[in-house]
Backbone:
């Protein structure tokens, strides 16, 4: 029987450091809730706004798949693998931290904010060789359609990670409905509403709300207004 858990936008952890205004769906940094540690292998879903010219100094990660989705502005990235790049709206970045990396992230522009989602997924392999990936996506491919951005398969559309997970983005017009049939039957689905209002398997969600669904085979998302939605299908253990 289908199970759902809804995370309303205003129940997320919140930290405003001045240069960083962050909302945390799951426990992170100084925000801790024993009931909100993760959804399956989805460990972190951070909704960050970084002030002009500011950013995260060099810091380490290991044994985590890190996915960054810029929503507006430009994010400057440097890491210990020698990568130096700028990612912008329409780009997706993946890092497999594996045996260990160090990186810094900074708002590339001094005069405007940078908004982004950063997502951490527990990997299915420990201590892999660290890896970096970045692509630019075509916005038209997600118009009333699921645009695959993450999968377990190196040769699939989008980028790949060390986990049996699939991520999709869509921009839905009012009244449009999309279905998603699970790639693996024991996976769960976490949906995050970036903009707009949608109905997911009968549940109404608004901007920045999230819903986790397990024990189901098909997810339907119908837009009550123009909407932008991220769907993440992931193992639950």
Residues:
């Amino acid at each position: 029987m289908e199970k759902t858990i809804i995370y309303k936008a205003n129940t997320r952890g919140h930290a405003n450091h001045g240069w960083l205004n962050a909302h945390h769906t799951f426990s992170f940094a100084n925000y801790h809730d024993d009931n909100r540690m993760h959804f399956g292998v989805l460990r972190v879903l951070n909704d960050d706004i970084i002030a002009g010219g500011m950013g995260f100094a060099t810091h380490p990660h290991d044994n985590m798949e890190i996915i960054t989705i810029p929503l507006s502005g430009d994010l400057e990235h440097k890491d210990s693998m020698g990568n130096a790049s700028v990612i912008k709206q329409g780009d997706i970045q993946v890092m497999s931290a594996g045996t260990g990396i160090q990186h810094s992230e900074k708002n590339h522009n001094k005069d405007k904010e940078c908004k982004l989602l950063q997502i951490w997924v527990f990997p299915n392999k420990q201590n892999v060789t660290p890896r970096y990936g970045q692509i630019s996506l075509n916005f038209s491919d997600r118009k009333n359609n699921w645009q695959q951005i993450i999968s377990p398969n190196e040769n699939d559309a989008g980028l790949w990670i060390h986990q049996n997970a699939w991520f999709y983005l869509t921009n839905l017009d009012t009244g449009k409905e999309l279905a998603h049939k699970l790639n693996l039957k024991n996976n769960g689905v976490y949906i995050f509403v970036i903009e707009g209002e949608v109905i997911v398997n009968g549940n109404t969600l608004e901007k920045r709300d999230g819903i986790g669904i397990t024990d189901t085979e098909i997810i339907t998302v119908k837009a009550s207004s123009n909407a932008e939605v991220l769907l993440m299908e992931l193992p639950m253990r």
